[in-house]
Amino acid sequence: MFDAAELGQRVSQREFKEREVQLRTKLLTLQYRTHELARFPVLIDFAGVEGAGKATTINMLNMWMDPRFIRTIGYQKPTRAEMARPRFWRYWRDMPPKGGIGLFLSGRYSRPLLSRVYGDIDEPEFDNRLSEIIRFENALVDDGALILKFWMHLGRTQQEERLKELEADPLRSYQVSEEDWKNHEHYDDFVAAAEHLITRTNRSAASWHIVEGGNENYRHLRVGEIIAAELSRHLEVQERKAAEDRPPTRVASPDMPKVDTVFDALDLSLSVPKSDYKKKVPAVQARLGELGRKAQAEGQSTVLVFEGPDAGGKGGAIRRTVWSLDARTYRVFQFAAPTDEERAHHYLWRFWRHLPRAGSVSVFDRSWYGRVLVERAEGFATEDEWRRAYNEINDFERQIVDHGILLLKFWMHIDKDEQLKRFKKREKSPYKHWKLTDEDWRNRELWEAYKQYGQDIIQYTSTKKAPWILVEANNKPYARLKVLQTVIDHLQEKLDGPAGRPA
Amino acid sequence: MFDAAELGQRVSQREFKEREVQLRTKLLTLQYRTHELARFPVLIDFAGVEGAGKATTINMLNMWMDPRFIRTIGYQKPTRAEMARPRFWRYWRDMPPKGGIGLFLSGRYSRPLLSRVYGDIDEPEFDNRLSEIIRFENALVDDGALILKFWMHLGRTQQEERLKELEADPLRSYQVSEEDWKNHEHYDDFVAAAEHLITRTNRSAASWHIVEGGNENYRHLRVGEIIAAELSRHLEVQERKAAEDRPPTRVASPDMPKVDTVFDALDLSLSVPKSDYKKKVPAVQARLGELGRKAQAEGQSTVLVFEGPDAGGKGGAIRRTVWSLDARTYRVFQFAAPTDEERAHHYLWRFWRHLPRAGSVSVFDRSWYGRVLVERAEGFATEDEWRRAYNEINDFERQIVDHGILLLKFWMHIDKDEQLKRFKKREKSPYKHWKLTDEDWRNRELWEAYKQYGQDIIQYTSTKKAPWILVEANNKPYARLKVLQTVIDHLQEKLDGPAGRPA
């Protein structure tokens, strides 16, 4: 695979100067067009053998292009904040906005590769890690992103010469570490693992480009020219798509035929007398408070998601749940229209941002399911977009759960009559009328559609790792106790193990 | 001062329930009005003696109000990311947006107070720290913020009893630490320092409220009722103001009489032959690269600010400066219209956000001076706003410099003819025409006004700590070398000391 990158390619200084002028003009023009279109981000990754000049080429790209729209990031060992979140959190955090370019060094490929070379993970686990990366890249590519991946190569002897040459230069000897020499000893393992990695993760719109790294002039030009060619191709496609954009039109309709859903099977008459509720709730909240403190001490994080019809009692259930927790350890997020910073990113970005730090609780009052609810109903997401969202969401939630975070998804369900009753009560209430908007009445017309969208959600996203908890919510005391008790049971199991008993 | 808060105030459970209903309705209504108006943030600070129940009252407020628009933050020892920035960075970072409420525990008053109690700082230094806080609060209050500060009080004996009571309760004993008892021993010092602190930092719109903490019911209601009263008063004023809002009208005029400015004294004929430039630049950049690596290793951060007329060569100078640095260690920020997240905050917020992490460089291509340039010219800032901005800016820069960050402010100046020449050249250039907008031509009409605004800037903000460096920029090689050399000289002095010599 790498033989073609050990040919000793060179470009003379004179040729470099000539080609550089043209290339720079081209890159800048493409960069400004990309910025202007603001329709997709560009992610450029640099990997490869030590000494192949990744960093200097990155500097050169910053010089050639307009650095105001570029973000360059080199990753190191995860920080504490990063360790508290799933592995890909930091890559989501550092995602360039649509129209921007990100240059990444020692990024998502670095750790799996080195872990494999040094035998810390076996081949199946290596493949798992690569599959994770593929899913990450797919989500971005499907959303329009351009991903370019460079493998900067040097032959074994070239590498040795290069490291020695750097060490001899007092201005650059700092670039060579002991680890580099250690890696050099593992050159063959490294190249074998790299070949496996590249084969597995190469796909159009997220393709690998192997570049011979020995000669600086050649390397700079080659990388720049590949970027120019790929970006140009991608821009044309995206500009054509932009020209075809139509304003969103509402898809959901009030006269949808009724079908049976999982919600129809719920026994909404379930209730708890108010006096019982009042008797039970202090003990339940005390228990939750205790578990909350334990979770904080042990660094156990929790994500709570609340969905369901308007006026289903999400807010009330949330308040009763967080009530017994220390206010410094939780945050409640509500998601209305995205801010323009959020709009400039993949739709999942604004949820990734809010995953809890260690030992904390993030409560989502409405969530990423907006993609397959309101965005589907209002046509903000195309059919392609919301259809693939189920998978993207499953993958997102899998990462949360696999990281050890407790994820609970509550669907607070009421029937249509109960909703009307609550809307009317809100209208009259001195403070709750703030909670009722024209939008709510408008959504109510789409009751049937939203119910069926909900059915799809339960069908596609109630997974073993992240099941939905359906809450019969016509009776508020019943619903609130069910939510509280569910959080307690799961948190207890997380903290004490399945057979655990409260201390 | 605290005698009036040692009366043993109590509220019975029945009275509490009655007043709570009314209070909650009031608080929620006020909160939604505040959210709707989205014109000012509310910052509520909780300080006071240990055991006075700050945390439980904060929890109660979260219960009473809508937690989606509240952010509760408790501060601990600064993290590494926080240490790398000036002291107030984390308070700026956590600022609630306009329309939101922030509840803060162990916030900006905590450290100065404890440092004083334990004798780590003397009284003049204590006063300095308090003055810093006053300036911070003033900037926010002037911008419309409502700041409320609660001092939760317990008498000496009350405190002792309270701590013992907590210790005896197995569910709450975790709330009492050894440090609490240690603080209790210093009760008198603590109260004396607190009295000084409160006296010094009390002002309307950022006032202290002393609340007796012994009885939970009394404490909750008292805090809630004060918030309701103050917020209601503030809202009325702000709603009145909002009704008087006019759309911005351009203030700057093309036919401003010419006056002599500091820029007229510049010798814009200064130049360096291109061949000289080419000869000199590699050595200069190599030196800067070396210093950059040293700065990174030693954690020395740098902030570079570039202002001046359009086409003054800011972009070119920035590119040549960052060129020799490792792309992972710098970021270039350009400031066009604020995003809506930025618009929801004080105008300095978006610059505070981008202060560099340890050992890094933040380059601002246009900056906070927009407040006294474009915002002044276009009427986006009122006269009051831009007039007080000079002080706010001085204070911001003082904090940067006092923290040990190297701050350099470059004003790249060209004359009107040179600008025209460059505009025309840009129009023709295959890639630079992206850089030329109608806005640029429009601003050019206001040349005289901007020159005088620049004069004001130099006059008010060229301080000893943060002087402006005027760059004669008609000749690009001259200007670029001057910028590069200035950065080198200052960085070298920072790293090696005034008498230092390059290694």
UniProtKB/TrEMBL annotation, chains A, B:
GO terms for molecular function: dTMP kinase activity; polyphosphate:AMP phosphotransferase activity. Keywords: Kinase, Transferase. GO terms for biological process: polyphosphate metabolic process. The keyword Kinase applies. Its EC number is 2.7.4.9. SUPFAM superfamilies: P-loop containing nucleoside triphosphate hydrolases. Residues 11-232, 274-494 form the Polyphosphate kinase-2-related domain. PANTHER family: POLYPHOSPHATE:AMP PHOSPHOTRANSFERASE, POLYPHOSPHATE:AMP PHOSPHOTRANSFERASE-RELATED. This is Thymidylate kinase. It comes from Stieleria maiorica. The lineage of its organism: Bacteria, Pseudomonadati, Planctomycetota, Planctomycetia, Pirellulales. The gene is tmk_2.
